[in-house]
Amino acid sequence: MRFRGKRDDQRGVALFLTVFALLLLSGIAIAMLYSSDTETTISVNYRDKQAAIFGALAGLQEARDRIHPLTGDLGPGTNLSSGGLHIVPTALPSSSAANVLYIINPASGETVAPWDPTNKYFDTELCQDSYFVNNLGVTAGTPGTPCPATSASVPAGTAWYSWYDNSQKQTKSGATGTGAAAVLETAYQLKDSGGNKIPLKYKWVRIHLKADNMTPVTVGTGTGQQLCWNGSHEQQIPAGYHPDCTPPPGGVTNITVTAAGSGYTSAPTVTITGGGGSGATATASIAALPTGITSVTLTNPGAGYTTVPATTVTPTDGNGSGAVVNAALNNTVPVQSVSWTSSKPACYPIGGSPSISFNPSGATASAAMTGNTCVYAFTASGSCTSRDVTATVTASNGTGTVAFSGSVSAGNNKKADGSYTPTNPGNYSTVPTTFSVASPCSSVTITPTYGIQISTINVTAGGAYQAGNTPTVSLSGVSPVGGTPSATAALSGAASPGPVVSLTIPIGGNGSGYTANPTLTISPPCSPLSSCSGTQATGTASINPSNGVSGIHVTNAGSGYSQSSPPTVTISGGGGSGATAVATVGAGGSYQGQVYLLTALAVTPSGARAMLQAETAVNYDQFTLGLGGALTLVGPTPTFGTPNSNPFQIIGTDCPTCAPAPAGCSTTAVPPKDAIGIYDPTNATDPSAVQTVIGDLAKPNNYIGANSAPDVHNANLGTMTAGDLNSVVSSIASIATYTYSSNPSSIYTGSAANPAIDVVYGDYSMGPTTGYGILVVTGTLTISGNYSWNGLILVIGSGASVMNGGGSGQITGGIFIANTAGGTINSPTANWNGGGGNGVQYDHCWADDMLAKVPYTPVISPKGLQVVSLRTLVY
């Protein structure tokens, strides 16, 4: 028998503590496992929600790209070679038009129909939109609660929406998308390692134009009006604007004279009618028109001329070209001989010969003919072995320098019978008697008719002609076979020295473009004149100027005129006739962009949902050309060839009284500009270009303007591209007074009252001259001598100019040089050679006021649509 001791009680307590410790550890382990599982679940759910959010965001981004007016395949896609599908809504949602577009993105085997309340992916946000409630009969939902899955939560019927299946590239009508849509759609598809498409997580994106009451925050009155984006904020569509937010018709901004007419003794009346608008008025100005010379006068006949002297007509003011003046002497010589210069053996019928005539008349001649030396014609008899064939005819048993050639043809009956004309009659000393016809007509018999040819042309009377004025010779009358021959006359004998007896303008020799009587120069009888006993003749040339309409100034632009069908301009009265003009209509406001509301739903395979909404807007590039200085150089690393002359200056300080101000310009000076402004769109603050130009200046203190001399600085001209600058050239050309091809001999230079707008497509050499207005040159501009130009000179294209100094004129206004060759902005060049006082003086009247005349229509920006707002929805 065992007795319990004190130690036995202690063992029981220890066991209890051990069991309790084990239970405690097990509980802790179980709690840790549960906590870990909960954390994992939370993490998975969080990541799934994030995937849904990013999926909805991807849907918004895809829609934003695909509705772009220029590059989006669902819109117009005007920058796409095959265009877009034109299914993006262009008006606010309506119960009768499909102005709501859904891009659906179903996974394989599922149906996505957000317009169907019974569908798993029903649009549960639509009933929260006040516009749909107020305008499309949708029953308003409870704020903060998804729309109930009933027909009352969507507009009635099916006319209000359309859809595009992104997974199948199909539209609502069931037609498969092609062209740009089929190509661009693939850019939005993910692929796995096997190349299989992985659909994005979003299920649908709703797209429509935004009204002012479509979101919790209303715009303006919130009465359901369409919104437009003005570049900085949304606003209700202005009165008269079109649904694409472009402005209504505007006023008449410019009237371009297309024909100056003539004979005006006073300013005619300008009447503006039609075009859908009213209120526009304008006045016309007249000026002496450029013309050709109308008369020449011999002021001194001179003496000692043995040959007719050359005469030249030189403009006195740089305007005009093309005039021709012929001088005549009283010493004459006869025609000595006539040479037959024909390259073809002309063959005449026996007994026939050509008539010989001279211009000017006076001499006479006759043709001596050969015997039978050519084949004038031939007949064929017999048949070919094939139908509808042509066979070559050749000759033999004849000796000559040019061989006979011809051909016969047979029709459906195989007969070659008929009369034929040789291809070449030949030229023989002994005419051929044997003729052969090639297969399949080798049995055809040829019978020739021989002809005669010119042996010599004999002068029967020499006439009397001024030395150097050889007459032309013509052969006419009987027509030969083988081509009509030509002949050349030769004068003989030495004429005795004599005076110039007359000056004449030949037909078509008046030239054109003269604005003042030109200088007429007659060459001396010998060179140098001191080496003979003669004296130089002199003469004058005159023009008979007639006034034409030189310009039309719009005094009231009016409003409501159509840009596509501008009003008619009628010019009447003033004593003249023939003047015509066309009007240019500007927009009745600034261009604004449409605002789209995009709503996207994404659902992950595990059921996580996210709905996001974004507002996007179309942006316009509102490019405006600006001047960086009296001389503006646009492009990287400009080249500036500096003149080395003390009088030469480029001044950016405004001087509106340095030249007669154009009509309507205030002569109050504006803040100064830099003497030379440099702008590189790729590096607008590049100091190296400025330092390079400053380092090239021979007289740094001569460059004065907004800053201390030498005033050469980087200019801030905003964003610009070569396309922007080239569009400026096109805009100016649309209102140009005249446009010219490369290297015109002269241009219309305008006046202070009626500035010119000239566009030269190519190179132009100017000077000496004085001009007023806008001059655009797309090639190289070369200016020489005493030139003056009051206005704006734009060298946009090759971006190169050469100024040859030595004169005393200057450019008052501004010069802008940009190299846009190849569609990019490259280095411009301005080389100034020589000295003199030629320079540039900034004048806001002749620079900025001229620039304001240039119309410019903004273009849609190729950049992505503006993201105005982005928010997460609880529905």
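[next item in queue]
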Amino acid sequence: MTSLGVGALLLAGLASGRLTAAEPASAAQRAALATTAEAAYVSEINPLLATYCVKCHGGDKTKGDLDLATYRSGAAAVRARTVWAKVATELHHREMPPAKEKQPSAGEVTAIHAWITSLRRLDPPDPGRVTIRRLNRAEYNNTVRDLLGLDAKPAADFPQDDVGDGFDNIADVLSLSPLLMEKYLLAADAVLEQVVADDQVKFEHAASELPAIIDGKNDAGRPLKSDAAGKPGDKPADKEAAREARTRTLTVPGEIFTQFSVLKEGRFTIKIRAGAEQAGTEPVRIAVKIDGQVVGELKITAKAKSPAYVSCSAALTPGGKRLSLIFLNPFTEPAPEAKPEAKTAAPVKPVTGKPKEAPGPRTRSLSVESIEVTGPPGERVTDLHKRIFTSVPDKDRSPREAARQIAERFATRAFRKPANQEQIALLMKVFDLADSQGETFSEAVKLMVKAALIAPEFSFRIELDQKGDSDGVYRLSAWELASRLSYFLWSSMPDDDLFKTAQDASLLDAKVLESQVRRMLGDPKARALVDNFAGQWLRLRTIFEITPDEKKFPEMTSELRQALYEEGALMFDAVLREGRSLVDFIDCDFTFLNERLARHYGITGVSGPQMRKVTLSDRNRGGIITMGSVLAVTSNPTRTSPVKRGKWVLEEILGTPPPPPPPMVEALDKENDTSSAGLSLRQRMERHRSDPSCASCHTVMDAIGFGLENFDPIGRWRDADAGAQMDTTGELPGGLKFSGPAQLKKLFLNHTGDFTRCLSEKLLTYALGRKLGVHDEDALDAITTAVAKDGHKLDRLVVAIVQSYPFQYRRLAR
């Protein structure tokens, strides 16, 4: 069998209906493929390696710490998956074998690639495992905005987000520092203060319910029975019984008290319904105290069985208050003295019937039926308030019932999945505690909602393990898929439409899922994908952080930085929303400018501060590689950096990041020996890469960077530097020569497949919120193939990622 025959056989196996890259292979299929791969290695692949590779990577020579001679058997070779992945990359980019060595034919390269690709199918399917992680600052802000309707940026004061693999939604952070917990509490307070309208403080307590201190002893209140309030139409006897059940009577020194909260400063009215039994010469007097200060002294003149209202008022400041009602003048009349018998000559008439008892001493008593407190009018209820208060107390619904309905709806939205009974019970405990301490309904609900906002289910993205198949893999629930989708495209929680498809599980249908993706891409909230993905992929955010030398580049103002950012953001947005090809990122005939940025680029005919689409006549511009923001963030403060620019292109366009520099190699900027004097930057770099340990990376990296040297450190065009004409010629592997940015971009257009795969890897990493591994290669193959078939369109790439195996499935912990 020829080498090309092996490649064709293996590629055919991958493309067959039984072994598509989109579907994981079964155990039996994996075993059969392993046998084929081992045999193919021994008969076809190993001889090719011996011919082209082992001279430098085997036996006594192991350049790059790679010894291919150790893989003599098919079984040993098949186990070395990571090694072969690196080999495939070197072959694909024609970096190996070196140009001076004998080169394999196209068919032989295809055979090796096909064999290496087949190895990916030998392991059990693995969609990866996204761990629990906190919402980053952008996600927190957006989630609060969409949950509460308030665009307040509460996370602005949070600590900086950690970054992993280029994105700040990657880091796996499971803990909360005390500082961040405090920030969450402050953020919740701040947003709820703006959303929840305070109720008017207005409550009434039956006096019998309230605790008291009677003659120095504590006396707890007693709960009222449900019928103690009386009902319309009750008989007089029933009404009297209800009144007595609500009344607390004092005959000795005593205090009845309660607590309540004041939300805002104002004047409060305290009304007491009370009656008295008089004794002595003065009426019953009571003192009303708030936090120990007397705010009113009242006389009770109504009869105990016919109580009446008395009232006073007080100006109060916000905070918890203790209201006390004190019986000031308890009194019992002294027993009357015995009178001496009068002497009389008249005869005493006999008394018939039962003799009358002499009246005993009278006791002054206070009978309090109820205490009411009414504050100043509440705030006007807004639409934001109504988003939370979807249920309110009324004649058919108690405050607690209304609060529970609010808790169930709010928690389901805040937690992005149906709240369970345990979660609801915890929230209701907060409401009950606040209610028992005299808080108004709105304040008690506010505290309950605050508890939800600081719960892990809100501030973390949580996917709980479910029952998996024999490989420990399971498909996400519709609720989890909805959250993955919304945080991918919007950096925020699902909206009502997406929640609906999660609730009825229709989101698990492929057609419904794609429809939701396209709907969401058309929503203004998809700008989050621009700011949070493109902003990091293109390093647009960094434009606000770089510090070009102010004396050399005073033009780098905040106005110019913002325009440079918007140029990149609007370019990504246009390619996404207009269904354009990814090729436009490499080269295109348009960009987005305002007057300030056009002047920076030397382009005329653009006026005003508004960014707009502009057609380019100079093909040295166009695309992200020659965009001012990218050129500026890949420069040094005082000069350009061909190394940084070349490295950026390798990482973000070609998907071939160079390895870190070897130890003990001095950086170019630190080479201060006298031999460097008088050398141009290009000459110094040529000398730098003469070191064999540097040449392998710098040969390609420097060539790309020098192809962009017509652009100065802040992205302006130049033909010369320090009086010398720019030399922007270069050569890439495969003998590909160019001169200047326009020709360099044309060469990259021949590598559209590489760019598509590179961007697919970046976007899949961002979408999953985790680092990719070898087990994701099949998914990347499927995504790249689907996008290529549809004209390399960016919106198709987004759909393909959402439809991919790792996006819809999850592996259990191992």
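[queue empty]
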